[in-house]
Amino acid sequence: MDAAAAARAWRPPPLIEAAWLRWAVYGGALLYAVLALGTLEVNWTRAAEGLERGGRFLGAFFPPDFVTHWLEIEEGLLESLTMTVTSTVFGVILSVPVALGASRNLAPMPIYLFCRGLIAVSRTFQEIIIAILFVAMFGFGPLAGMLTLAFSTIGFMGKLLAEDIEDIEKSQAEAVRATGASWFQLLAWGIQPQVLPRFIGLSAYRFDINFRESAVLGLVGAGGIGDTLNSSLDRYEFGTSAAILLIIIAIVMVCEYTSGFIRRAVQ
Amino acid sequence: MLVIEGLTKRYATGDLALDDVSLTVPKGQVMALIGPSGAGKSTLIRCVNRLVEPTAGTIRLGETVLTALGDRALRRARRRMGMIFQEYALVERLSVMENVLSGRLGYVGFWRSWFRRFPLADIEEAFRLLARVGLDHMVDKRADALSGGQRQRVGIVRALMQDPELLLVDEPTASLDPKTSRQIMRLIIELAKERGLAAIINIHDVALAQQFAERIVGLHAGRIVFDGPASDLTPEVLTTIYGEEDWSATIRKAEDDDEDEPPAVEAARIAAAD
Amino acid sequence: MPVIANGDGAKVWMRRTTAADLTAWFGWLAGVALTVLCFQFISDQTIWAFVWDAPRQAADLLDRAFPPRWSYANQLWRAMWDTINIATLGTVLAIAIGVPVAFLAAHNTTPSVVLARPVALFIIVASRSVNSLIWALILVIIFGPGMLAGILAIGLRSIGFIGKLLYEAIEEIDASQVEAVTATGAGRAQVLAWGIVPQVMPAFAGISVFRWDINIREATVLGLVGAGGIGMQLQASINTLAWPQVTMILILILGTVIVSEWLSARVRHAII
Ligand SMILES: Nc1ncnc2c1ncn2[C@@H]1O[C@H](COP(=O)(O)OP(=O)(O)OP(=O)(O)O)[C@@H](O)[C@H]1O
Ligand SMILES: [Mg+2]
């Protein structure tokens, strides 16, 4: 081999082999960047004014105002927390049959399609959109919020659990089936032990997510701390907003720590 | 050329891995370091290029006192010491060529290395060395797609690319089959001899050590318990290093079957072997 | 803990000793009691008459929502384009900030464990705790309504996501490869670029695409608080009770989400 010629030729091989495709991708990316940034209309005078407000907002964290609207904060927090608890419990319980129905290796075709459809709808639409519809149906208040979160919990847990069930060791389930077990016995002995630890871990994680989501549902009237936060921002009472944000962060940290602990404990 | 004096290493966990070790390796000498697991062989090698910080003692490479160097000077000194690892330690997701060129990182600036614009001389040297170890046909293959023997050869080339004065070799053959082990050992020795490099080779295989190294140092529990030519390695000596055992079968059991092949045939045979 | 209160785990717990058994049952009891209590609280805030009326309301809603107003789609393309841009530019912004934060947060790359690491971890936690809609709410107050607030909201929320997953990936890399690069005499930046970056590249690409996919969904609702995108049209249609338009918007969102999910699955497949 002619080392010198090869040396001049050596460059790291490009990520995309075909030159035309490579340039097309680069060109496309550049074109997109130009177009996308072009649609970005920034009102700089407005932004400059806003910076002053931003400064005030940041200033409100030193110190935050927990006192003035404590009653409203307390009310909103209670709603958020109760929503989180109930929606997680109901959502997790209901996700089990949905997940079973959405497992190709367990369910007959019509049930499979129905459950997969349910999961897809729940996962496609942001919680807020679902909440809007539920508020329209069930009226304002935390019940709509609870149902929203339960619904998205079903989608989340259902999908992950169904994937787990579809991935389980076939041999173990077959061994149970070979003993002449019924369908329910198969669930209890062949499948449940394999997926339970992850199921508990996912539930704990979902609790976490539900609390975070519960903090915004108030924006569309579905109850929770989001409502309190929104009205404090509307009234430019940034001290209260800061207090609420800090409380949310603190609770999320506690939830995250706890759910991490639970996940490690069961695995 | 390499002078170690009173080297002691106590890990943060409290393990005393090296206890007052003194050692001199002259220019061009290939030295094998043997000893039971946990004796401190890896620690010794890593103290030399300060991947592990010594607790006490001095290490000199030529005129440079390695143990006294600041960050920047240490980096410059590391260029003079090529290291070869047991588990190859190639950057798996980079290509063979990139792994080889990483041996030049100490010599080129950050942006040049980032854009892979190495000096032409480096690339020529890389091709030459890769051809020498029989790997010039897979320069753009990713390192994780190579066999163990191929990876170790890339590791050797990477170390040589540094243009070192000293090779630090930590169990180069421990993950390889017996035949490949001997090929790799022979390659290291040949290359070291060609370039007049000193080398410290950690090795578990006593027979291989005897076959390839002119000098053997035995380490036990962080202390040097033997230091002499390979021919002085008697069962008694092995007992002091490793403990009681029947050593008759161990010493020189490896037959010198293919010892005298010329290098060119050797390289071709290595290339054909994988 | 509510998590234990699902109907599935009972059998596992029953195999314990009597004491553990008792504790487990007590735990279950507490979980059930807590749930009931929480539900009681929610129930007190609910006007049940409305709820019993829900099936009729739902039927009514459906009746009014169908057929969708197909012609309305022509006014939505621009909004959908904005939505996608918000998600994409927001993700790019989050990558630009989240990647350095991840390197500051990871044990093995942080320049200082006492200073940089806690700051980076705090940035990650703060960013993750606050929903992008809340970020949008705040940013709209500062920058006024429009896409800019939306992009920043998506970006700020995603920093924590990318930062957290990436720093976990960085902490899991193979240290010996890094050591080998260090041993060649490479500088700090070179060790990063040659020893660490190649190892975390697949994780990084996967995380970014994954977050982009999530951000498309999030961007569809930012308009509700005035931060640009199709949510603005959604809000306007709901306010005027134009349900056929709402249906049209939902169909469009559904289509976009399906396409983005397909696209991100393809990209993830290609890089892993
Ligand atoms: N990073 C570390 N932290 C704490 N103790 C360590 C560390 N690395 C090694 N040690 C300890 O130092 C001693 C020497 O270890 P070293 O790895 O140098 O042995 P070795 O001779 O290379 O053994 P082997 O042949 O198994 O590779 C051992 O007791 C080991 O437990
Ligand atoms: Mg070792």
Instruction: Write down the domain tally of chain A.
Output: 2
Q: Would you list the SSEs of chain B in sequence order as H and E? A: EEEHEEHEHHHHEHEHEEHH
| Count of distinct strands of chain B | 10
Pick out the low-confidence regions of chain B. 254-274
Task: Give a concise summary.
The complex is a heterotrimer of chains A (267), B (274) and C (272). By secondary structure, chain A is mainly α.
Written account of the structure:
The complex is a heterotrimer of chains A (267), B (274) and C (272). Chain A has 267 residues and is mainly α. Chain A contains eleven helices and no strands. Chain A folds into two domains: 37 residues, no CATH class; 203 residues, MetI-like fold (Orthogonal Bundle). The C terminus of chain B is likely disordered. Chain B has a single domain, classed as P-loop containing nucleotide triphosphate hydrolases (Rossmann fold). In chain B, helix 7 links the parallel strand 7 and strand 8. Chain B contains ten helices and ten strands. Chain B has a six-stranded mixed sheet with strand order 6-7-8-3-9-10, sandwiched between helices. With 272 residues, chain C is an all-alpha fold. The chains are: A mainly alpha (267), B alpha/beta (274), C mainly alpha (272). Bound molecules: adenosine-5'-triphosphate and magnesium ion. The site of magnesium ion has 2 residues of chain B, from helix 1.
List keywords for this structure.
heterotrimer, A: 267 residues, mainly alpha, MetI-like fold, C: 272 residues, 0% strand, disordered N terminus, binds adenosine-5'-triphosphate, binds magnesium ion
Secondary structure: elements and pairs:
The complex is a heterotrimer of chains A (267), B (274) and C (272).
Chain A: H1 3-9, H2 19-38, H3 44-59, H4 70-101, H5 109-124, H6 127-138, H7 142-167, H8 170-178, H9 183-214, H10 225-234, H11 238-266
Helix pairs in contact in A: 4-7, 4-9, 4-10, 5-7, 6-7, 7-9, 8-9, 9-11, 10-11
Chain B: E1 2-10, E2 16-25, E3 30-34, H1 41-48, E4 56-61, E5 64-65, H2 71-78, E6 81-84, H3 96-101, H4 110-114, H5 120-132, H6 148-161, E7 166-170, H7 178-195, E8 198-202, H8 206-212, E9 215-220, E10 223-229, H9 235-242, H10 263-273
Parallel strand pairs in B: 3-8, 3-9, 6-7, 7-8
Antiparallel strand pairs in B: 1-2, 1-4, 4-5, 9-10
Helix pairs in contact in B: 5-6, 6-7
Chain C: H1 10-14, H2 18-44, H3 48-52, H4 54-65, H5 77-105, H6 116-129, H7 132-143, H8 147-171, H9 175-183, H10 188-222, H11 231-239, H12 243-271
Bound molecules: adenosine-5'-triphosphate and magnesium ion.
